[in-house]
Amino acid sequence: MRAARDRRVLLAQASAVLGFFLLWEGASRLGLADPRLLPPPTLVLPKVAELLADAGFRRHLWVTVRELLLAGVIAAPLGVGIGLALAESPYLGRAFKPFFHFVAAVPKSVFLPVFILLFGIGFGQKVAFGVFQALFVLVIATAAAVAAVPDELLRLARANGATRWQIWTEIHWNAMLPLILEGLRLGMIFNIAGVIFAEMYVSRAGLGQRFSTWGESFRMPELFAGVLIAAALSIIVNETLRALERRAGAWRTP
Amino acid sequence: MSLDLAESRQAPSAMTQDQPAIEVRGITHRYQTGRGEVLALRDINLSVAPGRFVGLVGPSGCGKSSLLMMMAGLVRPSEGSVAVAGAPVTRPAPERLGVVFQEASLLPWRTALENVAFPLKLRGVPRAEREARAGQLLHLVGLKGFEHRHPHELSGGMKQRVAIARGFCQDPPVLLMDEPFAALDEQTRMTLGDELLRIWDRHRKTVVFVTHGLTEAVYLCDEVVVLSGRPGEVLARIEIDLPRPRTWEMMATEHFGRLREQIWSLIRRQA
């Protein structure tokens, strides 16, 4: 019964993907869209394989992946640390939390020129901009995660003589982990957007640099193939974190 | 299966025999709100003999739960003190005082078994030992076979059973219960009340039981302490001289009704 339903869902999803590519192919072949602007998937998909086989392209891809990972590795402890400090110290929280909410609301792309002046146009600038993009949502998510720890469980732990450390490891850690992972996941989405955008704006290497070059020189099959690769990269990062989030928060879904 | 909960405790000495299990001396409590100071409790004096089942009732907001939290060492009173078996309580002392809260307060990421064993884990008792004990307690509260369920897989009544088992886990001589059945439906409440009495009858802990259910108070307790409305003061201590074991038929007796009426008339004048 259940297996049959799962099969039907899978079938529907497969048809949707197939239908999407068929529509795309059809639109391009039948002249509904200009094939010079929208090359058909039969042209784009082989291009994906071609690009991945190309050492020059792989070097660009690897630059972007390293920028993303390093920015993530810096942003995660920094964001969680600031979030914890804001949530745990009533003074710090009241004084500085509003600023994080304010800056979180501002589109980060407007700061990109400042980052170029501060960090140049190389690897370090992309990482710094990625960290900047990811940080705010992570700080806000962490502070919210602390606030979401149920008081009744803290009281229970105290009534049973838990030490401060035990209260953190037994209660806070477990209650907060799924929410922090959610913040991290959203942060990584911002991080990817930021890094690729910074590369497109000005850079010597990276996926974004390829995109702008291809766009300007009208190389549409490469551009669309690159977009598919960037999409796959983001989806892999997002789904990995989502799987971790589900495991850590299995107790949340009845 | 018999479970000797008393084996890990030292035999009560002659001195502790005639010493009250709990002694509340001159507790007065005030707290600050945005609109000024509130006097919550005024000069509460109370002494509970070992092995007694004592109820604490009063109009809502009278501070009965606060008083219990002070006995548990979770809230410090503005004035006065609490002593358990003669030793002052200034902070939580789980080996002397077990607490069962109104919300079952189970860790949602742990199984029933791990929840019962949680207080022992905090004390560093090895896993095998603490889980063996938790397993016996789950059996005692009728949850054999549910050891590895998570709280979201249990009904409200089952969760509260787990919480009661956890209260017994460290085998404390005193059990403080803060409206433990308030969130349950009538039937579950009655059944759990009976189970609590059955366990209590076997292990004879001192129980302080906060409730707003007067029938429940009369049915379970040896004595009911009635608090007044804010500021809470001890209005009366009513001895419940119904024989034990208690049976449901007793509720229909005239005597039961009179005791319940007596408490109700005291509270009604306050409300």
TrEMBL record, chain A:
One Pfam match: BPD_transp_1
SUPFAM superfamilies found in the cross-reference section: MetI-like
Compartments where located: Cell membrane
Transmembrane segments: 68-87, 99-121, 127-149, 184-203, 223-244
The ABC transmembrane type-1 domain, residue ranges: 61-241
An individual GO BP term: transmembrane transport
Bilayer disposition of the protein: Multi-pass membrane protein
Organism domain of life: Bacteria
Keyword annotations of the record: Cell membrane, Membrane, Transmembrane, Transmembrane helix, Transport
Keyword Hydrolase: no
GO annotations of cellular component type: plasma membrane
Keyword check for Cell membrane: yes
Family, similarity comment: Belongs to the binding-protein-dependent transport system permease family.
Identification of the protein by name: ABC transporter permease subunit
Organism per entry: Teichococcus coralli
Automatic annotation (TrEMBL), chain B:
Pfam families linked to this entry: ABC_tran
Keyword list, A-Z: ATP-binding, Nucleotide-binding, Transport
InterPro entries for the chain: AAA+_ATPase, ABC_transporter-like_ATP-bd, ABC_transporter-like_CS, ABC_transporter_ATP-bind, P-loop_NTPase
SUPFAM superfamilies: P-loop containing nucleoside triphosphate hydrolases
Ranges of residues in domain ABC transporter: 22-254
Domain of life: Bacteria
Membrane keyword on record: no
GO molecular-function term, one example from the UniProt record: ATP binding
Similarity comment: family membership: Belongs to the ABC transporter superfamily.
Protein name: ABC transporter ATP-binding protein
Source organism per UniProt: Teichococcus coralli
Classification lineage: Bacteria, Pseudomonadati, Pseudomonadota, Alphaproteobacteria, Acetobacterales
